[in-house]
Amino acid sequence: MMKSLFLFDMTFWLYLAAFVLYVVYVFVRRTGSQLVAAGHPGGESFEDGGWASQIGQVATIITIFGWMVNTAALVARAMERMANSGTFAPWSNQFEAMAYVSWAIILGYVLLELRYRIKTIGAFVVGLGFIAMGAASLLPYRYQTADPLVPALNSYWIYIHVSVTLTSYAAFAMAGGLGVMYLFRERAERGGAASGLAAALPDLETIDELGYKAIMVGFPLLAFGIILGAMWANYAWGGYWSWDPKETWSLIVWLIYGAYIHARMNRGWEGRRAALYAIFGFLMVIFCFWGVNFLLSGLHAYA
Amino acid sequence: MNGKQEAALEQTPAKQSAPGLGWNDVKGELVECFASLKLAMFLFFALAVTATIGTVIQQGEQADVYIKEYGEATYRWFVRLGFTDVYHTWWFTSLLGLLCVNSLTCFSQRFPAIWRSTRQDKVSVTLPFIKGLKQSAEIAVSGATKETVAEGLIQALAEKGYRVRAHKDAGVMTVYGTKGIMGRVGAHVAHLSATVIVLGGLIGSLYGFQEFGVWIEGQTYHIPRGNFDLRIDKFWIDYYENGAVKSYNSTLTVIDGGKEAVQKTITVNDPLVYKGIWFYQSSYGDSWDQVEMARLSIKDKDTDKVLTTVDLPWKQEAILDTLGLKITMTDFVADFGFNSTEKTVFSKTVEHANPAVKLTVLERQRLEATPWIFYHLPGLYDIPGSKYRFELIGYQPKKFTGLQITRDPGVTIVWIGSTLIVVGITLSSLIYHRRIWAKVLPADSGVTVVVGGTTHKSQLDFHKEFTKLLGRIQTFKS
Ligand code: HEM
């Protein structure tokens, strides 16, 4: 067994642990917040007393550690690839791509936590990183190995085109996770002001805004990724655009998010609607990433 | 987002239109419709949905493929609706065209105002306007003069990278700061470049071409579109250690005006470009009408003993003195077929399903024969009166390389548009447009600062920045 597979495995367990801790964190805060006097507008403006803050800290540390192991796994995989085929991109098959996406999701999450200091998002977003890593390890073993690339993929374009596109998927995953979070909080609010869950999560406006930001990160990245793919195709297939299902689907996803950013400008497309739309958009991303490979045929079918 | 305030700020005075339904009204309506975000959203969705059709139904296949899968009646509907070639139907291209018209109209309607505001802004606003902004506050600063507070504000905003302007009238200081207009310029760059990309695509489809050719090693071909010749020097395959294919390679030489102009080894990801024509490695295979060499075994007809084996090069005579034989391989087919009306032999497919060579045999200067010898059917053909039987026991196929030849004069335009669209969207994603107004009013024991701000998005970050600014204002004591 390759060294990288062991590290990928370890990443999976660390993300699982972090995810569980974040969920516990939300619940501890929830009971804690019921003791705090009502009327705090800012979601996490009150101090986490005792347990909650410690659990939160541990969750963050484990997440960061998991991300470092994830990084090490990708580096180890890159070296294994280098050794047996002379190319290093550690995102050259479905398994590696999933591992890379979870890496990007967690990186995005850690940056978000450091900047906005909102830990409860971890319960939703680190969960996605964990699911991505888990789904990857469910793939049959033959998909997990570092087989050499088929000729069409054996190109330096794979480094940049694939990583950029996958990073945009991670941003959309983040937006989807925040969308789910929004619905949770909204539901809790409807349950009455006394509900602790509502107070444990940041306020709706913040979640909404962060979700939008995530999409505004994903949108240009996906555009860039699609264009890099077109440039690659221009070198490999004799035309920059051939309406192959994969490239068409990435365009569809891009159009879906394009509709979203313009819809937001018209007002009304904030809040609940935006949250639902972000979840829908993310489902389309999943289809583009998995569904197309397994359900539709085309030039990208070997990916 | 506070769209209403934004709209109020950007409103250009409404043009007075004459009563009645004149051309100007119709034009105004049309422009409004084409500039509307509603149409934009409709188009984004419509394109997304219609593009899906082409990923579910295979595109550009032969009729029988569809009939087998969907049935005759459905197929007829597919053809009527263009579902077998969605991306070239009039309705799909019209949607794309409309998106261009839509974004261009949007650009021409909105961009001028944004451009103007990069140079001149509305500094003097009313007090209620500031108070009505989403972020606003009123702060009393005691023991300070208007001038020092205004100075402090100007400095605080300038430090944050704001472009600041101040205005003084009737004893009131107004300070205005703006930042991040490039974010909105970026959005409009994206709007323009979408059309540039579509235009490049259009030019490519009108003036470009795409062909596929099968080329045999060692031959030279004329490329009429470029008026030069192309020689196929070599084709080969590289393998990984585990036997998987690593790359397909062809060495090509361009001969222009009788001189060797360029030589290049192309692989799947690395085409040859000459005079705007691109040659891509796209497939390969074994030739179906010639071979490099064939191996015969020659048997004694009576004893069935192998007398010798001989390697025949393509179309070259081999002389076997000991047996009194002269043999030439004159023809090859990969999948033997016989046209009984024309009495000709041909290869039914390009597969090597039933390979056969044709020989010309001269035995002891007397007996001449031209038999077809089959790889899978030894002994099928018997030369009457001959001592020998010929069997084809192997051959070395001649490789062909499948090249795609393309010219696309629109491709540069597509790359320019692509670069601009990425730059534009990235700018609009990273930078957001903010404006802050502050009025410094005299008060009993110092001044009162009424400050308000608006942002085109990113409320959260703006709120942070605004709160910091408020904290700073409180320190302005002289
Ligand atoms: C064709 C592809 C298009 C792309 C790539 C595109 C891209 C963008 C981007 C990235 C933004 C900035 C969004 C933000 O800051 O949140 C934007 C804003 C906008 N778009 Fe588009 N857009 C497209 C088509 C259209 C069309 C057809 C319309 C027609 C009405 C339109 C109208 C607008 C308007 C009004 C804004 C706001 C501009 C401002 O801030 O002043 N867009 N667009």
Describe this structure in words.
The complex is a heterodimer of chains A (303) and B (478). The longest helix of chain A is centred in the N-terminal third of the chain and has 35 residues, at 51-85. In chain A, 76% of the residues lie in helices and 0% in strands. Mean pLDDT of chain A is 82; it is low at 35-47 and 298-303. Chain A contains ten helices and no strands. In chain A, helix 3 (94-116) crosses helix 6 (157-190), helix 6 (157-190) runs antiparallel to helix 8 and helix 9 (245-265) packs antiparallel against helix 10 (271-295). By secondary structure, chain A is mostly helical. The model of chain B is unreliable at 1-8 and 10-18 (pLDDT under 50). Chain B is α+β, with helices and mostly antiparallel strands. Chains A and B meet through helix 8 and helix 9 of A and helix 3, strand 7, strand 10 and helix 10 of B. The complex binds protoporphyrin IX containing FE. Protoporphyrin IX containing FE (HEM) sits between chains B (35-37, 40, 99, 102-103, 106, 110, 114, 184, 187, 190-191, 194, 421, 425, 428, 456-457) and A (258, 261-262, 265). Protoporphyrin IX containing FE sits between chains B (35-37, 40, 99, 102-103, 106, 110, 114, 184, 187, 190-191, 194, 421, 425, 428, 456-457) and A (258, 261-262, 265).
Briefly summarize what is shown.
Chain A is 76% helix and 0% strand.
As a percent range, the share of helical residues of chain B equals 25-40%
Structural class of the helix and strand makeup of chain B?
A: alpha+beta
Please outline the major beta sheet of chain B.
5 strands, antiparallel
Query: What is the CA-CA span between the terminal residues of chain B?
Result: 37 Å
**Could you tell me the number of beta strands of chain A?**
0
Q: Percent range for helical residues of chain A?
A: over 70%
Give the spatial strand order of the biggest sheet of chain B.
1-21-20-3-2
Name the average pLDDT of chain B. Answer: 85
**In percent terms, what proportion of residues of chain B is strand?**
35-45%
User: What is the count of DSSP helices of chain B, taking H or I runs of 4+ residues?
Assistant: 11
Low-pLDDT ranges of chain A: 35-47, 298-303
**In terms of structural class, how would the helical and strand content of chain A be classed?**
mainly alpha
Total helical elements of chain A:
10
Radius of gyration of chain B equals 39 Å
Instruction: Summarize the main sheet of chain A.
Output: none
Uncertain regions spanning at least 5 consecutive residues of chain B: 1-8, 10-18
Report the portion of residues of chain A in β strands: under 5%
- Total strand segments of chain B: 21
Q: Kindly report the average pLDDT value of chain A.
A: 82
Bound molecules: protoporphyrin IX containing FE
Order of helices and strands of chain A: HHHHHHHHHH
